[in-house]
Amino acid sequence: MLSARIRIALRLVAVAALAAVTAGCFQPMYAERTDGTPALREKLMGVELPPITDKPNASREARIGVEVRNALAFKLYGNATGMPPTHRLVIRFTTSRSSLMLDPNTALPTGENFGIDAQYNLVEIASNKSVMTGSTFSRVSYDMPGSYQRFTRTRALRDAEDRAAQEIAENINTRLASFFTAGT
Question: What is the per-residue pLDDT for 26?
Answer without folding.
Answer: 61
